Amino acid sequence: MTALAPDPRVLADNLAQVPRAVVMTMGALHEGHARLLDAARESVGPSGQVVATIFVNPLQFGEGEDFDRYPRTFEADLALCEARGVDVVFAPSVEHMYADDHVTIDPGPIAHILEGAQRPGHFTGVLTIVAKFLHLTKADFALFGEKDYQQLTAIRMMVRALDFPVEVVGVPTVREGDGLAMSSRNRYLSDAERAAAVVVPRALGAGAAVALTGADANEVLQVTRDVLAQEPLASPDYISLTDLNLGPAPTSGSARLLTAVRFGKTRLLDNVGFVLGGSA
After folding, report:
1. Which of 51, 160, 163, 200 has the fewest CB neighbours in a 10 Å radius?
2. pLDDT of 128-151, one tens digit each?
3. Does residue 177 form part of some domain?
């Protein structure tokens, strides 16, 4: 049975002396989150402990973003966690997490590119809550989806730089049948926007495919832009090709192609990894 911990004290009372994995979420859970929970169980085995956090973190939302309308589906989230064998759901209030003036984590240069450039302060909020949850859950493994690749990279950098005793595990993006990356924000899309959104994985796939033919970084980016441009409802914020640590794209070797695209008021992220001049 899944235990519900509404505050840090109850969480501490429910932590067992066994290997532990944590999956951090903002709720509105879907099959992508379910895959993270399954991977968490695989990390610690049947005798280990899986903790899921459900917390819509105000610190990572900027002015005018969707904090107030972000979907809250708490009862359905608890049911999914129960079905996936989660041992503890930690669902604290904002007051429990930010009771006083708080110290925050400075993400460094990664906070000023891609998502950070579009959403100033976002990664300060992300890393601050991740650090707090790592301390409170005392996890041995922390699992994050590769869909939010910049977030995953920033968390790995923080864990390495601040010597957190935890292994960060990236889990491949889970997709709908037509290729769209699963996201809690997909439910914002109108029918027309949902139909148009499939252009995002199609564009990334086209970029990855041309890379396998020996195309250089500029050619990969141009092909990706061209495919996105075919969809009038798609408005890209950025399309970027980087190395695995979000530095400049390599001449050859492992690379990551990332994009953020708006459909009306909804903003979707996606990315794909491949080897320039090699195989995906």
Report:
1. 163
2. 999 999 999 999 999 999 999 999
3. no
